[in-house]
């Protein structure tokens, strides 16, 4: 039985971190909302009052009778099952800590174009968005990327991965973050990448993985757009 992934069908968003794990592992999964009547299935699931553990919002994963929500939590569950997690418990927790930090970064990215409220359109909060984006680009991006560069430098295992000597879900997630930042803030990333060679090398290593490369070249990979988390508004880099 394939894994059932529930996420919005028009955007990469937070669901893309889970999709990348499935694609790298060659796992059998159903991206439910992208199928026929898939959005209805997603909406019915969210509205189902019989769910013992209802999810607040997508993404969530259905595995038999079990439902797991929140991106980092889903990846914590999937990592060992897809052979994309360290074996030692201490390393699993460290990888999860990095994953949660990436989730913080992603939330801050969202705040660059929706700093006041998610319910408002971007055009309704442009002045605040410009201030938020300036602070993010000048202060937060260098801080996050610098920390990730240090994590990579301190991993003494062979290879260029965040935890241990093998690629894991957290490396796939960092790849997605770099791709998203390149799309949203290309000028800032062009400057910052020169100071973070290990982060760039990890991104390149993930992109070269055969399963990932095939996915990126396929129609399954939804293009970045101005409806997702990573959005490119030129005025936010002016």
Description of the molecule:
This protein is α+β, with helices and mostly antiparallel strands and 238 residues long. The protein has a domain at 89-209: Glutathione S-transferase Yfyf (Class Pi), Chain A, domain 2 (Up-down Bundle). It is 53% helix and 6% strand. The protein has nine helices and four strands. It has helices at 15-25, 38-47, 71-81, 89-113, 126-154, 169-184, 186-192, 197-207, 210-216; strands at residues 3-6, 29-31, 60-63, 66-69. The protein has a four-stranded mixed β-sheet, with helices on one face. Helix 1 links the parallel strand 1 (3-6) and strand 2 (29-31). Helix 1 (15-25) runs parallel beside helix 3 (71-81) and helix 4 (89-113) packs parallel to helix 6. The protein is globular, with a radius of gyration of 18 Å. The model has no long low-confidence stretch (mean pLDDT 95).
Output the structural class.
alpha+beta
Largest sheet: 4 strands, mixed
Could you give the count of β-strands?
A: 4
What is the element string, with H for helices and E for strands?
EHEHEEHHHHHHH
User: Counting H and I runs of at least 4 residues, what is the number of helices?
Assistant: 9
Quick one: CATH class of the domain at 89-209?
A: Mainly Alpha
* Terminal residue distance: 49 Å
Helix proportion of residues, in percent? 40-55%
CATH topology-level name of the domain at 89-209: Glutathione S-transferase Yfyf (Class Pi), Chain A, domain 2
What does the radius of gyration come to?
18 Å
Strands of the biggest beta sheet: in what spatial order? 2-1-3-4
